[in-house]
Amino acid sequence: MKRILWIIGYAAICSLLALSGCSGGGGDNGGENGGNAPIAATQAAYIVVAWNDLDMHCLNPSYDNAVILPPYNTVWAQVIKRGTPPQIVTTGFTVEYSIDGNTYSYGKRNYGQFWDNMLKLFGVTLPHDKGLNLVDPSINNGLSGTMVMKADHFQVNGIPVTPVNDSGTWNPFQVAIITVKDQTGTVLAATRATVPTSDEINCAKCHGNATTDPLLDILQKHDLLSGTTLTANKPVLCAATCHGSPALGIPLGSTGKYLSQSIHSFHATKGAVCYDCHPGATTSCNRSARHTAVDGNCITCHGDMNQVGNSIAAGRVPWASEPKCVTCHIGVAGVDTGMTLYRNNPGHGGVYCAGCHGSPHAMVPSNLASDNYQAIQYQGVAKSLGDCGVCHATSRGGGDNFAGEHAAEGRTSACNVCHTGFLNAGNLTNWPHQFRWKAR
Question: b or e along 47-86 (b: 16 or more beta carbons within 10 Å of the residue's beta carbon)?
């Protein structure tokens, strides 16, 4: 009798989740798309997961003096056909993107200077609201369009999004709407992903005054200390000629030092902290609830500014070689990605690590609601995707609800341990991280 009541209770919970929209699937969350009911994950034919590649992009507040980074954002997405087994699919449909409530960049604050000075800074001329593309230079993307199919995913590179939406509100966490359509234009799946972009580079902490732009003060001081003539030739791209930057695809310059090494090493003794440049005290770009602190907790993974500079001097290539998850997550299968960065690494079933766990610096659960969107959409709880029913048609799914049921009897368990149909039951290496589930 107790078993029967428990099964009835589970069915009721599943029904409640489907009706409430807590566990969405192919469509947007009902509360964010005008009330349209989402498709339950266990009823959808396809799902789409999407993420920002770094989740800490920044841009200049202006482009008429010293220039560090252009407006540039990248989103990846994977489309999964649910089944036994699920399949990652790339043909037979298009994947579209748009920035919610943000349709143009030129004309907002001083961001238009990027296009006004683009030829001098980056050697090209593009229409307003079209961005640079370091991956596919012939494709210049705007704030909406179609993602490019890659081998196992879709990508849009160089979205020139700014942290000001069309209503004039400054928000460093813009949101991309990702929509999958078949060849007839029918929507098969949709989701949302945070597209971070902040101009909170706080050079004014040490540079400039009430009348001098901090970025101009940087050029003036550089001229004074190094005998350069940057002020007379502004605007100046800091990574060009003298200092290379892998982030912009620019090799080592005449100084033999990457820009990252020069900035970190020089400012290590100047009282600067991570959030002065990596945005920032207001933005708080590192938002993963289990990996952050008031100061961003950057030093725990990356080291202090002196260590960052010294590691590059010793041969580390910035942006291409970064801390590894296995440094802290010792002994967990599948966590060591070898020479491949977390953000570029395909994991369980070919789904990228970020597809289940979230973008670097915004891994679920996050302190920002938009980062948790997909986890709530597909499994009804803001935790890394671990509900097998999201992708596997043979699993009934159910998120954390079995744990809630079992907790009353002191038998807390991840629901998927017992309530999942799967292939190759004896080969635990087929499971995410050898299926070492904890009570979720």
Answer: bbbbbbbbbbbbbbbbbbbbbbbbbbbbbbbbbbbbeeeb
User: Crossing angle for the helix pair 259-267 and 305-313, nearest 10 degrees?
Assistant: 140
Residue 114 C-beta-side C-alpha neighbours within 13 Å? 27
Dihedral pair phi/psi, residue 236, rounded to 5°: -130, 130
Q: Tokens in use for 374?
A: 């997909």
CA 20 from centroid of its chain's CA atoms: 28
Residue boundaries of the structural domains of the chain:
1-206+271-291+324-433
Cα angle 298-301-307, degrees, rounded to a multiple of 5:
85
Concatenated DSSP letters of 120-157: HHHS----TT----SSSTT----SEEEPEE-SSSEEE-
DSSP assigned state of 188: E
d(CA 236, CA 55): 26
Closest CA to 416 of 433, 436, 394, 397: 397
d(CA 374, CA 364): 10
Q: Cα(110)–Cα(112) distance, rounded to whole angstroms?
A: 5
Give dist(CA 419, CA 70) in Å, integer.
49
pLDDT for position 398: 56
pLDDT value at position 412?
47
Quote the CA–CA distance of 277 and 281 in Å, as a whole number.
Answer: 10
- Mean of the pLDDT values across residues 10-23? 33
Global confidence as pTM: 0.85
Q: What is d(CA 22, CA 373) in angstroms, rounded to the nearest whole number?
A: 11
